Fold this sequence. Notes:
mainly beta; Immunoglobulin-like; nine-stranded mixed beta sheet
Amino acid sequence: MRIVGVALLATMPLNVFATEEDIVRAARVTVPPVLDGVVTPEEYPVEPVTEFTEWRPETGVPPENKTEVYVVYDEVALYVGWVCFEKNIDGLVASRMVRDSYLNDDDCINLMVDANNDKESSYDFMVNCRGCIYDGTVAKDGDVGGSAWDGVWDAKTSIAEDRWYCEMCIPWENFVYSADTETMGIQFFRDGMATREDTYWAGEGNNFSRVSTFGTLVGLEGLQSPKRFSFLPYGTLRGEQYPNEKDFIYDGGVDVGFKGGKAFNVNVTVNPDYAQIEADSEEINLEPSDIYLTEKRPYFTEANTTFASDFNLLYTRKMTDVLAGGKVTGTAGPVTYGVLDVQLESDDPRFPDDNVSATRVKTVIYEASYIGGMAVTRIGRGAISRDGDLSDYNVVGYVDANLTFPYDFGLSVAAAKSKTDWKPVAEPGTSGKDYSYIGNLLYNPNPTTNVTLNYIEQAENYQADMSFDQLYHRNRRSVGVNVVKGFQINKGPVREIEFSELFLHWWRLDTGASIRNYWCSHGSVTFNNNSFTGVYLDWGYDGRFYGYGVPTYDIKAAGVYVGSGTLSWGRLFFEYWRGENYGARYNDFYTEFSLTLFSKLQFGLNAEVVDQIYGAGEPGYGTEADDAFMVVNAKIVNRITDDLYWRAILQGNSEFDVYLASGLLSWTYLPGSTLYVAFEERRDNSTGSMDLLDRRLFVKMSYLISI
């Protein structure tokens, strides 16, 4: 059983904006650069950006390693050439090889583009020194985002004696912008793991990732509107085998997009595919089930940040079987709007025949500050209420505001109210208690100090059917403070020491009774070679899930962890837990190891050993019983080319005696067009004979057409 630490995350923008000096001029070229991973003056006839500032290990000083960035463009694409000088070229780290992997622990570069100049949202492009790419979007001045959005672009890298290069080609059709656009917001970052040096270009060291602090890309002249229409048809074949049954299922669908610039964009989908197996980097998901994975269906990922909210009111992964949908998004002056409607199929496991719609409006009131509102509605007969009846509708109204203040303060507030036709089994007089509030105040004076105050209140009858975590805070009020403080030592082998303290206190709303306190303390030491050690200690009384009928429980857990990340050939991480949880005393050991060979082949091993002793003083758990088990996951990833890779996974769970083998081949045979072939087999060894549970073969092919 893994225990995951809980921390309050800041969600507010800060009031530090780009200066007039943060300007980069792009040059228009008649002959585009050859994308070969080498940057030459002939291909990039423009003055480079060189004024980078060190963020770590020492904030605000000139970097030890110089970085040059060249920006040119033509009517087709934006081209960005990077020259990353490196004094420790043999120490470059690049252990990630699969698209949209976490690259910040590698030597990598990061480009962010605010194409529509709203100072609140941007596109995010990253490349490590081995050429692995990441793309996504961010919103709410950089506080909300992820890898859901996938653009059609390319990058190439190469390594020389004292530097490494990266060339990026990003077609204009990836962006939403006005035809008369002459400027865009832009930001450059570089993570240098070889010499432990992170640098940035625009803004200030405590908030350079905020969209409102980006610099300005100028010199854009005569940009043509991107291709207006896109069509993405797909087809799938699924073969399934069980002990006494075989089945073959054929399916297909299409996504259609229209880009009309900033003001008006339309997306339509017919039968989108749910089994987006490329979304999960650890295991292959071939079932239409709701597990927390990043959304990858193009219909939902386009302009997905428009519908972002503090309460995560529109968790689109809940909509598994979609018949059709339509979406309109855009901006009109300071106002951003979005309208979405989805019709679900009759065989959707939770919301059969339901219709889901969302309307979002927000307006800028000052730079990155805005106020907004949203409504999410589900009409049908899918949701099951507490008393077992089927709900006919659920409506949630939502208002929010992100406000910026000087002196490194930020404030975010939001409120929601729900209306539904079901009446829960509750105490008399509780009907109508269907609201939820949240507020966050952030103080962030420098990169090593972060203080967050948090207030949450959610009534016992609040219901948001399309939210992922709607019951997390039900029937309670909580106040919390989270303090993170780091000390940059940079003496001898010690690079940084960091401490964090989290304190929460809960009250029940129906009785007013206190639910005691929760306190969590963490500490870590980072060494110059990027190895790290740390300790953490959690204890308290947690009542978060009693809305589900789960009793409150004590937490008494401690952990120690060490690891290493600078070696380009491998990583090692392990941690140890000991505590009590849900009536069980337990010992938990977890380790993770990866090894990269020949630049393209990677081995990975995750293992967890748990020893649980039940009946640890909690009523209802019976006599004491010892239950020890192990979970092991072994993985091989081979990135053959930039567009082709395969992955194999072997996984075993001794608690259930279930063993899994799976494989995936992913090929981007044309830009935006993909072929996936996946295989999965599960076997049951509870009787010692490794009986077949199920076997699946899945093939998916899509083809992008742009006109």
